[in-house]
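Page 37, top half.
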Amino acid sequence: MAILDDARSFPSLWSTTIEFISTYAHLVHPSAELDWLLSPTTGDYNNCQFFSNFEIGSLNFFRSAGPEAYFQHLDMYGGFYYERYGDAPIHTLAMALFAKKSEVWFFRDVGYQHDSARHCPRRQECSCEPTDLDENFYKLVPMESPQNKPEDTCIRLWLGGEWMEKKQGWDQEAERMMGGDGYGGYVLSE
Protein backbone atom coordinates (compact mmCIF):
# COMPACT_ATOMS: atom_id res chain seq x y z
CA MET A 1 0.00 0.00 0.00
CA ALA A 2 1.02 3.60 -0.33
CA ILE A 3 -0.47 5.39 2.64
CA LEU A 4 -0.34 8.63 4.54
CA ASP A 5 1.37 8.62 7.93
CA ASP A 6 0.89 10.99 10.85
CA ALA A 7 3.43 13.82 10.51
CA ARG A 8 3.63 14.18 14.28
CA SER A 9 5.55 10.87 14.38
CA PHE A 10 8.67 12.23 12.68
CA PRO A 11 8.65 16.04 12.73
CA SER A 12 12.31 16.50 11.74
CA LEU A 13 12.51 13.83 9.02
CA TRP A 14 11.95 16.15 6.07
CA SER A 15 14.24 18.96 7.28
CA THR A 16 16.97 16.38 7.94
CA THR A 17 16.40 14.92 4.46
CA ILE A 18 16.59 18.38 2.86
CA GLU A 19 19.88 18.98 4.67
CA PHE A 20 21.16 15.65 3.33
CA ILE A 21 20.12 16.52 -0.23
CA SER A 22 21.89 19.87 -0.10
CA THR A 23 25.04 18.33 1.39
CA TYR A 24 25.14 15.19 -0.78
CA ALA A 25 23.44 16.32 -3.99
CA HIS A 26 25.97 14.31 -6.02
CA LEU A 27 24.55 11.08 -4.53
CA VAL A 28 20.93 11.76 -5.54
CA HIS A 29 19.93 9.79 -8.65
CA PRO A 30 19.67 12.03 -11.73
CA SER A 31 16.19 10.58 -12.40
CA ALA A 32 14.98 10.95 -8.81
CA GLU A 33 11.24 11.63 -8.68
CA LEU A 34 10.31 13.39 -5.47
CA ASP A 35 7.30 15.29 -6.84
CA TRP A 36 4.80 12.69 -5.68
CA LEU A 37 6.15 13.08 -2.12
CA LEU A 38 5.96 16.87 -1.99
CA SER A 39 3.14 19.29 -1.38
CA PRO A 40 2.72 21.40 -4.53
CA THR A 41 2.06 24.51 -2.43
CA THR A 42 4.77 24.28 0.25
CA GLY A 43 7.33 21.83 -1.16
CA ASP A 44 7.27 19.97 2.17
CA TYR A 45 7.09 16.19 2.51
CA ASN A 46 3.45 15.11 2.28
CA ASN A 47 4.07 12.04 4.52
CA CYS A 48 3.18 9.50 1.84
CA GLN A 49 4.99 6.20 2.18
CA PHE A 50 5.05 2.64 0.93
CA PHE A 51 3.70 0.48 3.71
CA SER A 52 3.58 -3.26 3.72
CA ASN A 53 6.13 -5.24 5.74
CA PHE A 54 6.19 -7.34 2.56
CA GLU A 55 9.18 -5.98 0.77
CA ILE A 56 11.71 -7.39 -1.61
CA GLY A 57 14.77 -5.18 -1.81
CA SER A 58 18.25 -5.32 -3.17
CA LEU A 59 20.93 -5.33 -0.49
CA ASN A 60 23.25 -3.95 -3.18
CA PHE A 61 20.91 -0.96 -3.43
CA PHE A 62 20.63 -0.35 0.33
CA ARG A 63 24.40 -0.80 0.78
CA SER A 64 25.27 1.55 -2.09
CA ALA A 65 26.77 5.01 -1.48
CA GLY A 66 23.53 7.06 -1.57
CA PRO A 67 21.31 5.04 0.76
CA GLU A 68 24.22 4.26 3.11
CA ALA A 69 25.12 7.96 3.43
CA TYR A 70 21.43 8.86 3.88
CA PHE A 71 20.92 6.33 6.68
CA GLN A 72 24.13 7.49 8.41
CA HIS A 73 22.99 11.12 8.11
CA LEU A 74 19.59 10.32 9.66
CA ASP A 75 21.24 8.28 12.40
CA MET A 76 23.59 11.15 13.24
CA TYR A 77 20.55 13.32 14.10
CA GLY A 78 18.98 10.69 16.36
CA GLY A 79 15.57 10.50 14.67
CA PHE A 80 15.57 6.70 14.85
CA TYR A 81 15.69 7.00 18.64
CA TYR A 82 14.02 10.28 19.54
CA GLU A 83 11.31 10.30 16.87
CA ARG A 84 9.76 7.48 14.88
CA TYR A 85 11.94 7.31 11.79
CA GLY A 86 10.44 3.99 10.79
CA ASP A 87 11.34 1.70 7.92
CA ALA A 88 8.38 2.76 5.74
CA PRO A 89 9.12 6.50 5.37
CA ILE A 90 12.90 5.91 5.24
CA HIS A 91 12.68 3.23 2.56
CA THR A 92 10.20 5.35 0.59
CA LEU A 93 12.43 8.43 0.68
CA ALA A 94 15.52 6.33 -0.12
CA MET A 95 13.81 4.80 -3.17
CA ALA A 96 12.66 8.23 -4.35
CA LEU A 97 16.15 9.72 -3.89
CA PHE A 98 18.39 6.94 -5.18
CA ALA A 99 16.44 4.80 -7.67
CA LYS A 100 14.52 5.32 -10.87
CA LYS A 101 10.78 5.03 -10.44
CA SER A 102 10.75 2.16 -12.94
CA GLU A 103 12.93 0.15 -10.53
CA VAL A 104 10.16 0.04 -7.90
CA TRP A 105 7.56 -2.70 -8.32
CA PHE A 106 4.07 -2.31 -6.92
CA PHE A 107 2.61 -5.69 -5.90
CA ARG A 108 -0.94 -4.72 -6.82
CA ASP A 109 -2.24 -8.31 -6.76
CA VAL A 110 -0.89 -9.20 -3.30
CA GLY A 111 -3.23 -8.76 -0.34
CA TYR A 112 -1.92 -7.18 2.84
CA GLN A 113 -3.34 -6.03 6.18
CA HIS A 114 -1.74 -4.16 9.07
CA ASP A 115 -4.17 -3.33 11.85
CA SER A 116 -7.03 -1.40 10.22
CA ALA A 117 -5.20 -0.57 6.98
CA ARG A 118 -5.54 -3.25 4.34
CA HIS A 119 -5.46 -3.95 0.64
CA CYS A 120 -7.38 -6.90 -0.78
CA PRO A 121 -7.03 -7.38 -4.54
CA ARG A 122 -10.01 -8.26 -6.70
CA ARG A 123 -9.13 -11.90 -7.30
CA GLN A 124 -11.31 -14.96 -7.01
CA GLU A 125 -8.63 -16.83 -5.04
CA CYS A 126 -8.73 -14.28 -2.22
CA SER A 127 -11.10 -14.79 0.68
CA CYS A 128 -10.99 -11.18 1.91
CA GLU A 129 -13.44 -8.43 1.04
CA PRO A 130 -11.94 -6.57 -1.97
CA THR A 131 -10.87 -2.98 -1.38
CA ASP A 132 -10.21 -0.10 -3.71
CA LEU A 133 -6.54 0.35 -4.43
CA ASP A 134 -6.24 3.39 -2.19
CA GLU A 135 -9.09 2.86 0.26
CA ASN A 136 -6.96 2.80 3.39
CA PHE A 137 -4.32 5.39 2.62
CA TYR A 138 -5.19 7.76 5.50
CA LYS A 139 -5.90 5.20 8.27
CA LEU A 140 -2.78 6.13 10.27
CA VAL A 141 -3.70 9.83 10.40
CA PRO A 142 -6.54 10.79 12.73
CA MET A 143 -9.03 13.09 11.01
CA GLU A 144 -8.36 15.69 13.72
CA SER A 145 -4.64 15.77 12.88
CA PRO A 146 -3.57 19.30 11.92
CA GLN A 147 -1.32 18.13 9.09
CA ASN A 148 -2.16 19.09 5.55
CA LYS A 149 -3.34 16.13 3.56
CA PRO A 150 -2.31 15.72 -0.09
CA GLU A 151 -4.73 16.60 -2.87
CA ASP A 152 -4.75 12.99 -4.02
CA THR A 153 -4.10 9.62 -2.41
CA CYS A 154 -0.50 8.48 -2.12
CA ILE A 155 -0.84 5.60 -4.59
CA ARG A 156 -2.40 7.91 -7.18
CA LEU A 157 0.39 10.45 -6.67
CA TRP A 158 3.04 7.73 -7.09
CA LEU A 159 1.45 6.12 -10.15
CA GLY A 160 0.79 9.56 -11.63
CA GLY A 161 -1.44 10.54 -14.51
CA GLU A 162 -5.14 9.96 -14.88
CA TRP A 163 -5.04 6.21 -14.34
CA MET A 164 -8.21 6.45 -12.26
CA GLU A 165 -10.87 8.90 -13.32
CA LYS A 166 -12.89 11.07 -10.98
CA LYS A 167 -16.65 10.61 -10.75
CA GLN A 168 -18.52 13.18 -12.79
CA GLY A 169 -19.61 16.13 -10.64
CA TRP A 170 -17.54 15.04 -7.63
CA ASP A 171 -15.85 17.77 -5.62
CA GLN A 172 -13.20 16.98 -3.00
CA GLU A 173 -13.97 19.97 -0.77
CA ALA A 174 -17.72 19.28 -0.88
CA GLU A 175 -17.08 15.72 0.27
CA ARG A 176 -14.94 16.96 3.16
CA MET A 177 -17.62 19.47 4.17
CA MET A 178 -20.08 16.55 4.34
CA GLY A 179 -17.77 14.68 6.74
CA GLY A 180 -15.88 12.51 4.26
CA ASP A 181 -12.13 12.28 3.92
CA GLY A 182 -12.11 13.85 0.46
CA TYR A 183 -10.89 10.80 -1.45
CA GLY A 184 -14.08 8.91 -2.29
CA GLY A 185 -14.85 10.38 -5.70
CA TYR A 186 -12.89 8.07 -7.95
CA VAL A 187 -13.98 5.46 -10.46
CA LEU A 188 -12.31 2.14 -9.65
CA SER A 189 -9.73 1.01 -12.17
CA GLU A 190 -9.40 -2.74 -12.56
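Page 37, bottom half:
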Amino acid sequence: MTDLARTGTVFGVGLGPGNPDLMSVKADRLIRSARHVAYFRKVGKAGLARSIVSGMLPPDTVEFPMEYPVTTEIALSDPAYNASLAPFYAECVAHLTALVRSGEDVVVLCEGDPFFYGSFMHLHARLEGLVPVEVLPATTGMSGAWTATGQPITWGDDVLTVLMATLPEPELARRMADTDALVVMKIGRNMDRVRRALATAGKLETAFVVEYATMPNQRVTRLVDMAEGVTPYFTIVLLHGQGRRP
Protein backbone atom coordinates (compact mmCIF):
# COMPACT_ATOMS: atom_id res chain seq x y z
CA MET A 1 0.00 0.00 0.00
CA THR A 2 1.40 3.41 -0.96
CA ASP A 3 1.63 6.42 1.34
CA LEU A 4 -0.99 8.14 -0.82
CA ALA A 5 -3.48 5.31 -0.17
CA ARG A 6 -3.10 5.81 3.59
CA THR A 7 -3.63 9.58 3.46
CA GLY A 8 -6.91 11.05 4.64
CA THR A 9 -8.39 14.49 3.97
CA VAL A 10 -9.15 17.58 6.03
CA PHE A 11 -12.65 18.80 5.20
CA GLY A 12 -13.41 22.43 6.02
CA VAL A 13 -17.18 22.12 6.31
CA GLY A 14 -19.28 25.26 6.21
CA LEU A 15 -22.26 24.97 8.58
CA GLY A 16 -24.09 28.09 7.43
CA PRO A 17 -25.54 30.82 9.66
CA GLY A 18 -26.71 28.58 12.50
CA ASN A 19 -29.82 26.67 11.44
CA PRO A 20 -28.81 23.04 10.71
CA ASP A 21 -31.53 22.84 8.04
CA LEU A 22 -29.50 25.31 5.94
CA MET A 23 -26.43 23.07 5.61
CA SER A 24 -25.58 21.54 2.26
CA VAL A 25 -26.45 17.90 1.66
CA LYS A 26 -22.76 17.02 1.46
CA ALA A 27 -21.99 18.80 4.75
CA ASP A 28 -24.78 16.86 6.45
CA ARG A 29 -23.49 13.58 5.06
CA LEU A 30 -19.88 14.20 6.13
CA ILE A 31 -20.87 15.26 9.64
CA ARG A 32 -23.15 12.27 10.21
CA SER A 33 -20.40 9.85 9.19
CA ALA A 34 -17.40 11.64 10.75
CA ARG A 35 -14.83 9.63 12.70
CA HIS A 36 -12.92 12.79 13.68
CA VAL A 37 -14.24 16.35 14.04
CA ALA A 38 -12.43 19.53 15.03
CA TYR A 39 -13.91 22.92 15.87
CA PHE A 40 -12.90 26.27 17.32
CA ARG A 41 -14.26 27.56 20.59
CA LYS A 42 -13.52 29.97 23.40
CA VAL A 43 -12.16 28.43 26.60
CA GLY A 44 -15.02 27.41 28.84
CA LYS A 45 -17.60 27.54 26.04
CA ALA A 46 -19.19 24.75 24.00
CA GLY A 47 -18.70 26.70 20.76
CA LEU A 48 -21.42 27.55 18.26
CA ALA A 49 -20.05 25.23 15.57
CA ARG A 50 -20.31 22.25 17.93
CA SER A 51 -23.76 23.35 19.09
CA ILE A 52 -25.07 23.50 15.51
CA VAL A 53 -24.27 19.83 14.93
CA SER A 54 -25.65 18.65 18.27
CA GLY A 55 -27.29 15.25 17.80
CA MET A 56 -25.75 14.73 14.34
CA LEU A 57 -22.39 13.14 15.19
CA PRO A 58 -21.96 9.36 15.49
CA PRO A 59 -21.52 8.23 19.12
CA ASP A 60 -17.91 7.13 18.54
CA THR A 61 -16.73 10.36 16.87
CA VAL A 62 -13.46 11.66 18.31
CA GLU A 63 -13.67 15.39 18.97
CA PHE A 64 -10.79 17.88 18.89
CA PRO A 65 -11.85 21.26 20.34
CA MET A 66 -9.41 23.99 19.32
CA GLU A 67 -9.56 26.57 22.12
CA TYR A 68 -8.37 30.08 21.31
CA PRO A 69 -5.62 31.30 23.66
CA VAL A 70 -7.02 34.84 23.29
CA THR A 71 -10.15 36.41 21.82
CA THR A 72 -10.97 39.97 22.90
CA GLU A 73 -8.56 40.16 25.85
CA ILE A 74 -5.81 41.68 23.68
CA ALA A 75 -6.22 44.40 21.07
CA LEU A 76 -5.81 43.25 17.46
CA SER A 77 -3.05 45.82 17.03
CA ASP A 78 -1.05 44.45 19.98
CA PRO A 79 1.88 42.27 18.77
CA ALA A 80 1.02 39.87 21.59
CA TYR A 81 -2.19 38.97 19.75
CA ASN A 82 -0.45 37.35 16.78
CA ALA A 83 2.29 36.06 19.06
CA SER A 84 -0.35 34.03 20.92
CA LEU A 85 -2.35 32.85 17.91
CA ALA A 86 0.52 31.78 15.61
CA PRO A 87 1.73 28.89 17.83
CA PHE A 88 -1.89 27.95 18.56
CA TYR A 89 -2.63 27.48 14.86
CA ALA A 90 0.66 25.61 14.44
CA GLU A 91 -0.34 23.15 17.18
CA CYS A 92 -3.76 22.62 15.60
CA VAL A 93 -2.21 21.97 12.20
CA ALA A 94 0.27 19.48 13.69
CA HIS A 95 -2.59 17.52 15.25
CA LEU A 96 -4.70 17.50 12.09
CA THR A 97 -1.73 16.60 9.91
CA ALA A 98 -0.85 13.63 12.11
CA LEU A 99 -4.41 12.30 11.87
CA VAL A 100 -4.60 12.70 8.10
CA ARG A 101 -1.22 11.10 7.51
CA SER A 102 -2.37 8.11 9.56
CA GLY A 103 -5.21 7.67 7.06
CA GLU A 104 -8.02 9.45 8.91
CA ASP A 105 -10.41 12.02 7.47
CA VAL A 106 -11.07 15.03 9.72
CA VAL A 107 -14.15 17.25 9.49
CA VAL A 108 -13.42 20.79 10.66
CA LEU A 109 -16.73 22.43 11.61
CA CYS A 110 -16.89 26.03 10.39
CA GLU A 111 -19.58 28.57 11.27
CA GLY A 112 -20.82 30.33 8.14
CA ASP A 113 -18.59 29.82 5.09
CA PRO A 114 -15.02 28.55 5.69
CA PHE A 115 -13.49 31.11 3.31
CA PHE A 116 -15.40 34.15 4.57
CA TYR A 117 -13.68 35.77 7.59
CA GLY A 118 -13.45 32.40 9.34
CA SER A 119 -10.70 30.90 11.51
CA PHE A 120 -10.46 27.91 9.17
CA MET A 121 -8.62 30.10 6.66
CA HIS A 122 -5.64 30.19 9.02
CA LEU A 123 -5.57 26.40 9.10
CA HIS A 124 -6.01 26.15 5.33
CA ALA A 125 -3.07 28.46 4.66
CA ARG A 126 -0.85 26.20 6.78
CA LEU A 127 -2.27 22.84 5.64
CA GLU A 128 -2.23 23.51 1.90
CA GLY A 129 0.57 21.52 0.31
CA LEU A 130 1.01 19.32 3.39
CA VAL A 131 -2.13 17.17 3.23
CA PRO A 132 -5.27 16.97 1.06
CA VAL A 133 -7.79 19.67 1.98
CA GLU A 134 -11.34 20.08 0.68
CA VAL A 135 -13.55 23.07 1.46
CA LEU A 136 -17.35 22.93 1.46
CA PRO A 137 -18.96 26.36 0.94
CA ALA A 138 -22.05 27.41 2.86
CA THR A 139 -24.75 30.03 3.24
CA THR A 140 -23.16 33.05 4.93
CA GLY A 141 -24.39 34.67 8.11
CA MET A 142 -24.99 37.93 6.27
CA SER A 143 -27.27 36.16 3.76
CA GLY A 144 -29.26 34.75 6.63
CA ALA A 145 -29.41 38.23 8.19
CA TRP A 146 -30.74 40.12 5.17
CA THR A 147 -33.24 37.35 4.49
CA ALA A 148 -34.48 37.79 8.07
CA THR A 149 -35.35 41.43 7.32
CA GLY A 150 -37.70 40.37 4.52
CA GLN A 151 -36.09 42.78 2.06
CA PRO A 152 -33.60 42.35 -0.82
CA ILE A 153 -30.16 43.66 0.11
CA THR A 154 -29.39 44.90 -3.43
CA TRP A 155 -31.27 46.04 -6.52
CA GLY A 156 -30.04 46.62 -10.07
CA ASP A 157 -26.59 48.22 -10.00
CA ASP A 158 -26.33 48.64 -6.22
CA VAL A 159 -22.83 48.27 -4.81
CA LEU A 160 -22.64 46.11 -1.68
CA THR A 161 -19.88 46.78 0.85
CA VAL A 162 -18.90 44.44 3.69
CA LEU A 163 -17.15 46.14 6.60
CA MET A 164 -15.63 45.00 9.88
CA ALA A 165 -16.75 47.10 12.86
CA THR A 166 -13.18 46.93 14.15
CA LEU A 167 -12.09 49.51 11.54
CA PRO A 168 -11.36 53.06 12.76
CA GLU A 169 -14.51 55.17 12.96
CA PRO A 170 -13.49 57.69 10.24
CA GLU A 171 -12.76 54.80 7.86
CA LEU A 172 -16.13 53.21 8.62
CA ALA A 173 -17.96 56.48 7.98
CA ARG A 174 -16.11 57.08 4.69
CA ARG A 175 -16.87 53.64 3.31
CA MET A 176 -20.48 53.74 4.54
CA ALA A 177 -21.06 57.02 2.74
CA ASP A 178 -19.59 55.59 -0.46
CA THR A 179 -21.83 52.53 -0.84
CA ASP A 180 -25.43 51.69 -1.74
CA ALA A 181 -25.93 48.58 0.39
CA LEU A 182 -24.00 47.65 3.51
CA VAL A 183 -23.15 44.74 5.78
CA VAL A 184 -21.20 45.40 8.99
CA MET A 185 -19.82 42.41 10.88
CA LYS A 186 -17.87 41.83 14.10
CA ILE A 187 -20.07 44.23 16.01
CA GLY A 188 -19.83 43.18 19.67
CA ARG A 189 -18.31 46.03 21.66
CA ASN A 190 -18.14 48.23 18.57
CA MET A 191 -21.85 48.99 18.15
CA ASP A 192 -21.63 52.58 19.39
CA ARG A 193 -18.79 53.23 16.93
CA VAL A 194 -20.88 51.80 14.09
CA ARG A 195 -23.85 53.92 15.15
CA ARG A 196 -21.80 57.12 15.12
CA ALA A 197 -20.21 56.26 11.77
CA LEU A 198 -23.62 55.66 10.20
CA ALA A 199 -24.86 58.98 11.58
CA THR A 200 -21.82 60.73 10.07
CA ALA A 201 -22.55 59.03 6.74
CA GLY A 202 -26.19 60.14 6.95
CA LYS A 203 -27.49 56.57 6.94
CA LEU A 204 -28.39 55.81 10.53
CA GLU A 205 -32.15 56.07 10.09
CA THR A 206 -32.39 53.22 7.56
CA ALA A 207 -30.03 50.71 9.18
CA PHE A 208 -31.17 47.38 10.63
CA VAL A 209 -29.63 45.15 13.29
CA VAL A 210 -30.02 41.37 13.06
CA GLU A 211 -29.00 39.20 16.00
CA TYR A 212 -28.61 35.42 15.74
CA ALA A 213 -29.87 35.22 12.15
CA THR A 214 -31.74 31.97 11.34
CA MET A 215 -31.42 30.73 14.93
CA PRO A 216 -34.32 30.27 17.38
CA ASN A 217 -33.46 33.54 19.20
CA GLN A 218 -33.24 35.61 15.99
CA ARG A 219 -34.14 39.28 16.43
CA VAL A 220 -34.49 42.04 13.81
CA THR A 221 -34.47 45.67 14.98
CA ARG A 222 -34.09 49.10 13.44
CA LEU A 223 -30.82 50.48 14.74
CA VAL A 224 -32.39 53.74 15.89
CA ASP A 225 -34.72 51.72 18.13
CA MET A 226 -31.93 49.72 19.75
CA ALA A 227 -30.31 50.65 23.06
CA GLU A 228 -26.64 51.53 23.08
CA GLY A 229 -24.01 49.17 24.43
CA VAL A 230 -22.49 45.75 23.74
CA THR A 231 -24.36 43.39 21.41
CA PRO A 232 -24.11 39.59 21.01
CA TYR A 233 -21.22 38.25 18.94
CA PHE A 234 -23.61 37.04 16.24
CA THR A 235 -24.89 40.48 15.29
CA ILE A 236 -24.91 42.07 11.83
CA VAL A 237 -25.84 45.61 10.82
CA LEU A 238 -27.48 46.02 7.41
CA LEU A 239 -28.30 48.84 5.05
CA HIS A 240 -30.52 47.87 2.09
CA GLY A 241 -29.79 49.17 -1.37
CA GLN A 242 -32.53 51.10 -3.17
CA GLY A 243 -31.22 50.86 -6.71
CA ARG A 244 -32.59 50.38 -10.19
CA ARG A 245 -35.63 48.17 -10.62
CA PRO A 246 -38.33 47.73 -13.33
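Margin note: The two ends are 63 Å apart (CA to CA).
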